[in-house]
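task queued by scheduler; priority normal; single chain, no ligands, no partner chains; default sampling; output format set to structure tokens
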Amino acid sequence: MPKILLSLLLLLPLGPVFAQTPADTSLVDQWYREGKELYYDGKYREAETRFRQLLELCVKAYGERHEQVYKVRERLGKTLYH
């Protein structure tokens, strides 16, 4: 039993790192805004790249069936078929 407790205590410092890395909502919001700005400026290739990166980040952070993933996929589709 003490070994399990010790193992859990060793993992505690990593918790915030994993929580912030892919799921950082400010980064998601920032990349989404940047992608939209690029799209509205007519820079479709750059917008596509930004939305693909964002989609990858969101899937890692939230999983395939999260609302944010659907939102980014929809925006990526609009960018591809402008």
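post-processing summary
- The chain has one domain: 19-80.
- The longest helix spans residues 44-62.
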